Structure prediction request, 282 residues.
Amino acid sequence: MLNLMVKYASPSLDRVFHALAHPARRAMLRRLADGEHNLSELAAPLRMSFPAASKHVRVLEQARLVRRRVVGRTHVCRIEGKPLAQANQWLEKYLAIWEANFQRLDSLLDELKANSGRPEP
Amino acid sequence: MKNTLKVTTPTDREIVVTRIFEAPRPLVWEAMVKPELLKRWLFGPEGWTMTICDEDVRVGGAFHWAWSGPEGAAMSMRGVYREVVPPQRIVRTESFEFGCDSQAGEQLATIVLTEQAGRTLLTLTVLYPSKEARDGTIASGMEHGLNAGYDRLEEILDAKA
Prediction:
């Protein structure tokens, strides 16, 4: 019942939710929320190789959640807030669709309450 | 708003939705199990209507819901009732299809209705087969969103961008 309305979003949001669907990438985002980190710093707590971490960062980049710049041999990563805010708006929209259903149910229940005093036909 | 919809994720594999209704429990129960009533409120996003609502609300009974939307888009939900305790509890399997795309694995939905002084609290718990399935519900669900022609969200996002 809950996934009835999850099918509609923009391709950019698809990428955001895809990026957020992996625990390692969420961990990276949490880490980046407190400021810039390089790729090795992101990889270390996850016990990941540099290439594996780089692959995850690429997914985050494609979703535009993270921006990476190469300084010498260091890959410096920074979080980008806007796509997250958009994803959040989408989720609010999703809840609003559910709420619209439930408000229709509210009205229906009012009607049933008004009728319930009467004998069954 | 006092009857606000709440969504929480108490465990790795669950999503829980709660909502209060200003009606006694037997009426909420009816509205959730009678096809002619379900059809009046359980729509999809704007522009969608419920086209099929087959219900066999008893243990082992099946249900089949379908909706049609813009540009010929279709989605459906099927499952089997595992527990039916009127007017308080339903447990059923649920499996979702969008066009030809089936959701991987079924989920278990538990609906509990609790009456509090003439009002009814609905608690809907969806248990996914895995954490990945739960976390991926939204992500995988939207892979095909482009085909549905539902781009109002994009308009909204663009307007706010």
